[in-house]
Write a structure and sequence with these properties.
Length: about 180
């Protein structure tokens, strides 16, 4: 029996979640291989998104969102790194973080900066979920802390809205 109290994700929401996960994977690949983002985006769109590779299912993703995140992170990487570094503890410089965690934080902060169509709470929640997919230690908590802190700074109006991220009497936009 399904829990009816939990909101169900719409297919568009699942595609956006898959796009975010794929974007983190692509950003990891870019950093490890030093390949240009355009080539990695093309590879993912043609050969990975919506495919099963070596038993790993790359779900159907919102390809436009995926490309926007990957290319946007690469374009604004210096700005993103500065913002992330500003909220990290002094004994944890950005370079000390796992590559996947850096990719995840960059993608999340990029969305907070550039994707006003997505509520800040949704951005934080989505990337914390992705952190849980990759890490079982303290990393998801760190991702939550960094993204939450920057979300409050970059999107203060999002936090003055109702509990679900929407103004009273309106429906929240799809994440």
């Amino acid at each position: 029996m399904e829990d009816e109290s939990k909101p169900q994700r719409r297919p568009a929401g699942l595609k956006r979640s898959a796009a975010r996960l794929a974007a983190v994977q692509a950003l990891y690949q870019i950093e490890v291989t030093d390949r240009p983002s355009s080539g990695v985006v093309t590879e993912f769109v043609k050969h990975r998104l919506g495919q099963e590779i070596d038993g790993e299912n790359y779900g159907m993703a919102d390809k436009a969102l995926f490309a926007n995140i990957v290319e946007g992170v690469e374009r604004r990487r210096e700005d993103l790194d500065g913002m992330i570094s500003s909220v990290l503890p002094s004994d944890w410089p950005l370079e000390r973080l796992e590559i996947v965690l850096r990719a995840l934080l960059r993608a999340g902060v990029y969305e907070l900066l550039e994707r006003a169509d997505v509520p800040g709470r949704v951005v934080v929640s989505e990337y914390v979920d992705i952190a849980h997919a990759f890490f079982s230690g303290k990393e998801p908590g760190m991702a939550n802390g960094v993204l939450d802190r920057l979300a409050h700074t970059l999107r203060p109006d999002d936090w003055e809205k109702g509990r679900n991220g929407a103004r009273q009497g309106s429906r929240p936009p799809a994440g």
